[in-house]
Design goal:
The protein is of the alpha/beta class and about 375 residues long. It is about 40% helix and about 15% strand. α1 crosses α11 and α5 packs across α9. It starts with a strand and ends with a helix.
Length: about 375
């Protein structure tokens, strides 16, 4: 098959996240099976206009934000498809990140939607009431009317539920089994001598990084040597905001910002840390939960979409009853005080992570594509 993927970012984009990992892990496996895969994505600073990564051809055009209109990847994908790919591909994968590519309006070939999450009320948290209302009701409109009758791929029961509530028939939704990208070198890191908490992900408001910092403040009262490692990058202004909170709370000696790190270093840090903090307000799938679990680090997480699908409270992690930094700190303190319980949770988390396999993900998506051709 000739497969065209439309996604706002690619795997090399500095702002890429779990959705881009998912996309690339599937795409490179499709290439290995003899299929042709081309991905259209936005440009970023100092990027190549065209690239080939693991056999996947990536073409970069425009800005990821649709508010740039005629300079956005969404509009330029429409133009580039008409000029170069119309009638030359078998299937087009339309990835939704708040705003889709509106392929039903111009793509004649078979279409598959990949939706990792439905933003819903998150529009308000990020854009405020006015622009958030526009985003939320635009999302409702295109899901209910524009994409009706098109197969959807998603990554969790939570997102499936959100899609159903927005009018997508259950028969059109397939949940992909997710995978984990392990580094080539196995990680055998020992836990730090002092209690170490870890946040891994994009530094954005929706990820709740500030809640992780306030959690640390409470934990220090019981375990004065506790550290928090923050791994990831985001908008410079937001990173500075987080560092200002740390400084204002007099915790600079307790917090380390690592920025972007390699996969090997990420797993090394995960292995050394004791607990992963996941205070995200909304997730399609919290990929760092099974990743850290694989190296024996359980998660304490907010009871949010995508996270509640991964964590069985008290068995392979802690899912909070109340989504506050105070509740998160209480759970962390309780876990650090009970070595036997922590060890049991760590072993169960590692076992639960063994079921994640990208080969199964790629095979499932390929089966749905072939079924709809």
């Amino acid at each position: 098959m000739n497969i065209l993927i439309l996604n706002w970012r690619d795997i090399k984009n500095p702002s890429s996240g779990g959705a881009e990992i998912l996309t690339h892990e599937m795409a490179k496996r499709w290439v290995a099976k003899g299929h042709s895969v081309i991905q259209l994505s936005s440009h970023f600073t100092a990027c190549k206009e065209e690239d080939i990564i693991d056999g996947v051809r990536i073409i970069r055009k425009g800005h990821p934000d649709i508010r740039y209109f005629f300079s956005s990847i969404h509009f330029l994908s429409f133009v580039y498809y008409l000029k170069n790919f119309r009638g030359k591909v078998d299937v087009v994968i339309d990835e939704v990140h708040g705003i889709p590519f509106f392929t039903p309006w111009y793509v004649k070939e078979k279409k598959i939607v990949l939706s990792c999450e439905v933003a819903g009320n998150l529009w308000y948290s990020i854009f405020g009431f006015v622009f958030g209302s526009v985003g939320k009701y635009t999302e409702k409109f295109y899901l209910r009317y524009i994409y009706r009758g098109i197969p959807f791929l998603t990554i969790s029961q939570s997102t499936k539920k959100d899609l159903l509530q927005n009018g997508i028939p259950e028969s059109d939704i397939t949940i992909l089994p997710m995978g984990i990208s392990l580094p080539k070198k196995s990680q055998t890191s020992k836990k730090n001598l002092y209690p170490t908490l870890l946040f891994v992900g994009r530094l954005t408001k929706q990820k709740g990084v500030d809640y992780a910092i306030y959690t640390l403040k409470e934990v220090i009262k019981h375990f004065p040597k506790t550290h928090l490692w923050i791994v990831g990058r985001g908008e410079k202004s937001y990173e500075e905001h987080l560092k200002h909170i740390v400084k204002k709370q007099h915790m600079s000696q307790h917090v380390t910002f690592f920025g972007y790190v390699s996969e090997e270093e990420k797993f090394n840090l995960m292995g050394k840390a004791h607990i992963l903090l996941h205070p995200s307000l909304h997730e399609g799938f919290g990929l760092t939960v099974p990743e850290s679990a694989r190296v024996g680090t359980p998660a304490v997480a907010y009871n949010s979409s995508g996270l509640r699908d991964l964590i069985e409270n008290g068995k392979n992690g802690i899912l909070l009853k109340e989504n506050t930094s105070k509740a998160m700190a209480g759970a962390v303190i309780s876990l650090l005080e009970d070595g036997a319980r922590y060890k049991k949770l760590s072993l169960a988390a590692r076992q639960a992570s063994m079921r994640f396999d990208w080969d199964k993900t790629a095979q499932t998506a390929l089966r749905i594509m072939k079924k709809n051709l």
